Protein 1
Amino acid sequence: MPEPDFVTVTWNTNLTLTLCETCDSHYLLPSALFPFKCPTCFGAVLIEIEAEHQPNELRHHYAPEQVIPFTISHQELTAHIEQFAGRIWFAPGDLKPETLISRLQRLYLPMWLVDSGVEALWQAEVGFNYEIVSHHDQFDQNHGGWHSQQVTEQRIRWEPRLGRLNRIYHNMPAPALEQHAQIMQRLGQYDLTEAISFQTEALEQAVIHLPDRPPTDAWPDAIPAFHAAAAEECRQASRADHLRGYRWTSNYRDQHWTLLLLPVYATYYIDDEDRPQPILIHGRTGRLSGPKRASMKRARHTALIIVAMAAALFILSLILGGISFVAPPLVILAGISLLGALIIGMLAITPIIVVWQYNRNSSNREREE
Amino acid sequence: MVTDTFPPANFIPAPSAIEGIEVYQPAPTQPQAHREVVQFNCPQCGAGTAYSATDGGLTCTHCGFYEPPEHDIVGTQAERFEFTVETVQRAAQGWGEVRKELQCQSCAAYTTVSTDTLTHTCIFCGSNQVIQHAAPQDVLRPRFLIPFKIEADGCHDIARRWLGQSWMTPRSLRRAATIAHFTGIYLPFWTFETITKAHWQAEVGHTQTERYYENGEWRTRTKTVWKWESGRVNLPLKDLVIAGTNRVSPLLLAQVQTYHLDDLAPYEPKYLAGLQAQAYDVPLETAWEQARHQMREQTRQACRDQASSSKIRNFSMNMDFDQEGWRYILLPMYLTNYQFDNKRFQVMINGQTGTVTGQRPVDWTVVWLAVAALLAPGLTVGVIGFLTLLLGGLGFPIAILGFILLVIGLIISINLVTKAMRMDDA
């Protein structure tokens, strides 16, 4: 009996290791979805690869430990997509809400979770709440003079503390994708406290984006989380209400890396140049992120129609002008037609300018994000 | 960051709520060992030592041994405490220094005495009857005091000069008064400080002159125009001193309790060697209420001074106390009493500045003679004027003059009698 491959063993379900040759992203794909377009760039179909073809530093069998489940309902998703796609003048033909909805695909983005033992010498100032008794007085010449009211105010008493620490901290997060920060900025952050233990059922025909950032690169991003967790524990150990100025010299040992999966919907539309424009949707809040492009092709088409109308009016004005030699009152109509032709002709450029300005603003917004 | 030696020398282990995390905290200041009886003996000759106001330390009158205080003067930088809930509750209890406490059976006053005094004359009522009681434990202790600057020997001359100063006292008082020994005692006081933050509003009146036409001519009249004004006051109030005892006449105490707090020094038992000290019987909260009353009025006046005129009506204000602090201190005082005409009178001398006050008998005969002398001219001139008025027109101005002299004499007489009554009531 052939041994099950490492993916099946690690993920406890039948997944295929794939690669997008366009954007060089690795995915785990449910066998039922195969073949499948890359959910990041939608530029190519994913191809199956062997485990040995993974980057060396990512070849370790990293198991999923936690997942943040999808919670947004289909109705909410539809409403968000309609709001995204419904307000674009001269939208590309493919940018329709129903098209985007039909192409929705569940995708999980990875984050690293690292466990590590920590030994450290630490020092900080800890604060203890205490109350003082004060007074608030009022004087009214016409209503009995002075009235005094006792009040209590809370203050903090700061004291120095230091000590030694030898603890193990679990599941400190770190980005597993090079584009993690940009994605989070566009989609919004995830509340990591909502993560639950990984169950195979959570996958539900979702595609899993594998890390493109090895643990050695991600480790410096995990250290602040250890620092914060240790500071909080030192506060609790000191039985204090507050803590400030926490500093330590630390050593780490026995790191263990696993994965946290973040829920995202992916879809796309085809623009004027027949290029797929990917759209990502936050799997909890429904916030959309992706390029919004108006169609210059449609704008030109509309401009041509307007030019044609202007030309028709112009020809009419010529005809009326000719007839006006016989029927002089028609010269007024000819003038009106000519004026109309000129005005409409000038308006012909408007769709092109609108689309150009809209696309320019969209690009600037995306660059800022 | 943490040093090579861990933990640092002045840190001790503290309980940790989490396994795997050790916590160290600064070692608390070692409290001085408490002795039930504090005895000051000269290490050279073994005789008893006492605090000397002249030398500013412990001295032995036999061999001249001198021991200065351990700590320097801190003055108004002396540490203040906040009104924490716990402190307010603790301060309602007694005084914490372990000294021998005695109760007078006559006036029930508690005083503490140095441990080498077994009997003494009660400085409040002059009674020789004393019962020993144990001092209360676990209560507030004074942290600072102003050491005596005036020697007890000098008090007699100060008192005799003062006795002969007032013309209202009997002439024989100065030589006949038998002044008992002056007893130096540290009396308890509270000091308070805060910043009062007030917002006020009021109608402020300004006088305006206007012209109006009436009965064929222009006239002028003044009227008051009222306008609403408001403002904010931030008033820092520092080192307001409130007496911590009711055993001494508050009237007398108020006349001598002006101390220079720049001389405040950290509490040491040697300052009390050979002297007496009294625990507070006015709790912190009561003293703070008295201080707040004074602070309220000062703040109210500051608000009224901000108004653009002194004519104010419908005045109201809101006020908060910020950065409140207090101290419990001991201030030096000499108390004694003297006998005159079979009555006892009390004398107090400020142990730092030498200011003296006290009770003095009033020779009412002299006072009434003075009153008569003041009223006589007015009465005499008035009667003359009245008589000459009956005889002819010249009497009227003389009667007016007499009336003015009488009024002046009355004002001065009332002043004199009030002063004499105050002296008599002190």
Note: The radius of gyration of chain A is 32 Å.
Protein 2
Amino acid sequence: MRAFTYERATTPADAATAVARDPTARFIAGGTNLLDLMKLEIETPRRLVDVNGLKLDKIEPTQDGGLRIGALVRNTDLAADKRVRKGYGVLSRALLAGASGQLRNKATTAGNLLQRTRCPYFYDTNMPCNKRTPGAGCSAIGGFTRGHAVLGTSEACIATHPSDMAVAMRILDAGVETVRPDGATRTIPIAEFHRLPGATPHIETALTAGELITAVTLPKPVGGVHAYHKVRDRASYAFALVSVATILHKDGSGRVALGGVAHKPWRNETAESVLRGQVPAPQAFGRAADILLQDAKTYAHNAFKIPLARRAIVRTLTQAANATPQIQAIKTIR
Amino acid sequence: MPNPQDLNMSRRDLMAASAATVTLAGAASTANAAPTPDAPSLVKVAFEVNGDKRVLTLDTRTTLLDALREHLKLTGTKKGCDHGQCGACTVIVDGRRINSCLTLAVMHEGDKVTTIEGLGTPDKLHPLQAAFVKHDGYQCGYCTPGQICSAKAVLDEIKAGVPSHVTQDITKDPKLTEAELRERMSGNICRCGAYSNIVEAIGEVAGGLA
């Protein structure tokens, strides 16, 4: 790890100013991803600005009946919050499907959104990677691609975003509240927060230099049956090959998004529109899945993700329609 | 997100600077040269470990794990992968289990840290330690301190009503079942594969599984 100076920020705007002023500076909160990357010298900040003292660790009701989740709320606390478990079950489920108990105790809401891809070529500093060194080339394309994206990819990058939480936030229409160095605040809709790789895969979010996430807001609960299904190589503590977040209503309408298949949570409102007015059954779910996956492009080892995603969508929506308990231990869908 | 060009530049700058530091390092130790951008930055930090107040002056890069093992000589906590994947370094900070390898010591000012040495001693084993011995919850024992710190926090989490991935109804409090223990302990890898005995040991301390 490279040497760095360490300071504790006292206000969000001061933290933003400190990081905006110095391109080698980084915010640190939970640190579970950043320190890992620093040990491998993928991240080499010279200055760390600790934001843990900013008191952004509350979950509060908003005026419109939703919730404001402080940027520093730990994943464990967000998943365990009674209001989240009751009104936003898909979010609790997604959080609990991610990482380990130890990591969830440290990882923050904002940090989870900002975590970097786990593409093995991003992690291997001996291999070219457009995320690490813009213009260097992508080693994944033509390499081992089993875990890589099938939607929204580019010739520069086929990495996935690894977050489970973000997939749930995508169907909940969350907003990302930020503060900039001049003190200006804004709310970025979650749909616009993460970017597709395009020609600039090193630019992963809509944030500008020094812009600090202060909270994530959720609109008031929409009801329905919530489900999050994660398909992975181990039953626990592994990143998704494919994951599905859904909210389904009795009238057949619903929302669905995919994780593990793109550079951002993948949602397409057109796919959801075909659910409306249909009997909530596998046939309609399959049609929605086909629309969601229609532009998929596969690479050498990840073609399996398309049928896997299709089946996972149908299964998860069927589970939701039947209100089958959403636990991995239950293998049959009633 | 910083400008990509800046990132690029800083990487190159850093390479050049670090090459320069190699020659400076010898001088720095004797002549106390002015810090260069790559020179270690030292920070004082005070926290409590197993009930004792400890004050250390540490290179900012020092993880909590290295502070415990290398500076305080509390070698019960183990370094396995050093990347948060194995759980051997699990300690309890302010009542919560964390991977001590993925947190900086300087970020723990005023915190209360409990390591395996703080849970029990050879003469007075913690109930979990005694149960791991009784149920053969290990073979080589390297992951055991992390397993036991994690297990203690797991029982507290269930008691506090924190749900897990296998909790059937997350609007209700979780039950103490084998599936719950296995899921919650998944961040602690045992290369010897003593998992079934570990579950038995934890279950016994918990007063039996549902």
Note: Chain B touches chain A through 59 residues (CB under 8 Å).
